[in-house]
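Course assignment 3, question 2. Fill in each field.
Student: A.L.
Task: Predict the tertiary structure for the chain below.
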Amino acid sequence: MAQLRSEIDAVLNEVLASEHYDVVHIHNAHHFSPTLAHAVLATGLPAINTVHDRVGEHLHPDVLDLPWAHITYVSHYLQQALPSQRCSSVSWLGIDLHRFTPSGPGDSRLAALPAPRILHPARLLRWKGVHVSVAALAVLKSREIDASLILCGSREVVDDQSELARYREELEQLADDASVRHRVHFMDFDRAGIDRAYRSADMVWYPTVEPEPLGLVPIEAMATGTPVVVSDTGGMRETVMHGATGLRVPPNYPGALAEASRRLLEDGRLSEQLVTGGLRQARRFDLNRYVAGVEQLYKSVSE
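Answer field:
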């Protein structure tokens, strides 16, 4: 730890010497080690810590009670799950509502697949519930709904590559065993073009088995006019209003995910209602609103 602290101090001193700074803003200071948090606070500058998640083995919640100028949480769920004695507030993240819109180009790869097309845009991590989606696809098939499931196949992520490979093999085996392998499609998505994929999907699933800190995927999908079905956990209880802007189902329950999706596919009036409500809800997550809030926070702690 002493060596790590020395290295962090050297980097911070070099950065701080380059020009004048009024505020230091760190994200997820409670992860991995408290060393970085202590080093940042030792600069003497007003320090803000934003809490983005609580997933992981190496958490240090005591860091949240250090003398931060302010702590921001990206959801009320996180504020309750990782409370702090310091001054804090909730600030939902924002999305670019000029890019995530119902109008615009689609993704030709999705458009070429048989409908209904269901998109689960998440990294291949177990807590993201990708196996739940594959199992739910099999349930739909048993109910004579032959849907296409699109999963993110990209391995350009900061995660254990061997773990990603093992999980993908498990998903492929699960699909083989359920005779739906021909309906499961792994695709790479450029972050800059993910809005195209949303527009070409008939529905977006986000059945995380662990609580999602906030969940930008459902918000982005709603902004493009695509109905969503998500787990009834974490921050998604704040973003997806059941029956009004989307549908929420119990986590790790493929049957419930499939049933909600069947209902949505067969009830055009419900689908239209969720799309309309989702578009309205997405406007609450305007990126410009979020940025303005961050700027105001910087001013308030530096005065």
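Instructor remarks: The beta strands are 24-27, 47-51, 70-73, 88-90, 117-120, 148-152, 184-187, 203-206, 228-231, 247-249. The longest helix spans residues 2-18.
Grade: pending
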